[in-house]
Amino acid sequence: MTRDKIKKAALSLFVKNGYEGAHVAEIAKAVNIKTASLYFHFESKEKLFLEIFYDLLHEKLKSIEAANEFINQMDSVQEQLFFLYTDYYKWVDGYQDEMVFWKRTALFPPSFLEDQIRKELITYEQRYVAVLLEPVFLKGMALHVLKDQDVNRLIVGFLGLMAAVFSEIHYSEPAVYQKKLEILWENFWDSIKK
After folding, report:
1. Three-state helix/strand/coil letters over 92-156
2. pLDDT score, position 119
3. Which of 86, 105, 124, 185 is at a distance of 20 to 30 A from 50, taking alpha carbons?
4. What is the tens place of the pLDDT at every residue in 99-154?
5. Class for domain 1-42, per CATH?
């Protein structure tokens, strides 16, 4: 229980202050324990940070499998892609601290963890592409729903769409980004459909 409270407090402080700005003493204070007690649960701030990162990575990997099961029940390629699109922005919108932590870690990882984190993020993206995107795009082209083209062009376009969502939700108010997200989707779909 204390371990989970520590991780929750640390997540909040990593989001607010970044890795370098989040101090172990602040994390301990946030959960009303002494700094030495925190070290009973986590060997170092680095280990705490990595556990939060790997917990989140594990959840995101599990969500790939869940999304795959869900979209495989859908008949339409458009529905499948739209689900992946909306599922992503619902996650980004619904888990603010987790989203900001993920974003900050992806863009500005602690320098001594940069290689390790980038490797994990690349592995995650490759899994997302292999399990979700590539099969849907290939199916769409085989069914003549999507324009025939290199599947990698479609994947890069979709990932670019996700990057736009990632930024838009962070900077805009809900009413503004909802409209923009609708327009982004319509433009993307119109550009790939036959």
Report:
1. HHHCHHHHHHHHHHHHCCCHHHHHHHHHHHHHHHHHHHHHHHHHHHHHHHHCCCECCCCHHHHHH
2. 98
3. 86
4. 889 989 999 999 999 999 999 999 999 999 999 999 999 999 999 999 999 999 99
5. mainly alpha
Q: What are phi and psi of 172, to 5 degrees?
A: -110, 160
Residue with tokens 């790997």: 54
Q: Are 83 and 132 in contact (CB under 8 A)?
A: no
Instruction: Select the CATH number that applies to the domain covering 50-192 from these four: 2.10.109.10, 1.10.357.10, 3.30.300.30, 3.30.10.20.
Output: 1.10.357.10
Q: What pLDDT, on a 0 to 100 scale, did the predictor assign at position 113?
A: 96
For the segment 5-48, what is each residue's pLDDT rounded down to a tens digit? 999 999 999 999 999 999 999 999 999 999 999 999 999 999 99
Angle at 161 between CA 159 and CA 164, to 5 degrees: 115
CA angle, 76 then 80 then 83, to 5°: 135
Going from N- to C-terminal start, the domains of the chain cover 1-42, 50-192
